[in-house]
Amino acid sequence: MADMKVGFVVTHAADDPEMATLPFMLATGALAMGVAPVLILQADGVALAVPGGAEAVVCDGLAPLADLLKGLLAAGVRIMVCSPCMSRRGITEQMLLDGCYVGGAGQVVTEMLECENFLRY
Question: Which of 91, 107, 95 has its CA nearest to residue 40?
Fold first, then answer.
């Protein structure tokens, strides 16, 4: 991947389809520009890391979130999923989509420090 990284913390899913979809659109754009996207799912955003989670998020006028997620994963982008947020919602590591992995506070901070910029949605 690219030398430059830009990070996105995704805190929404079906509760706010627009805010859930926008970071995936930006991550796809970054990838096309040769900038490595870093995606971290927290709070309600962890629902996107399980089968059917992204399909439940539809925002008129924006690209389908499920397609964006599939494209990023197919391109080799790995997506970190907040461990305490998963636990709070009854999501286990075995339930995660291929390409998604469990991360804790230390891993989140490490990724943030390696990025040119970090945005929260």
Answer: 107
Tell me the whole-structure pTM to 2 decimals. Answer: 0.94
Looking at the structure of the chain, the number of domains it has is 1
d(CA 64, CA 43): 21
Q: Which pLDDT tens digit goes with each residue over 103-117?
A: 999 999 999 999 999
Q: How confident is the model at residue 3 (pLDDT cuts 50, 70, 90)?
A: confident
Per the structure, the complete domain to which residue 52 belongs is given by 5-120
Q: CATH number of the domain at 37, please.
A: 3.40.1260.10
Question: Which two three-digit tokens encode residue 40?
Answer: 């971290």
Q: Residues 121, 99: contact at Cβ < 8 Å? A: no
Which DSSP state fits 85?
A: H
DSSP state of 34: T
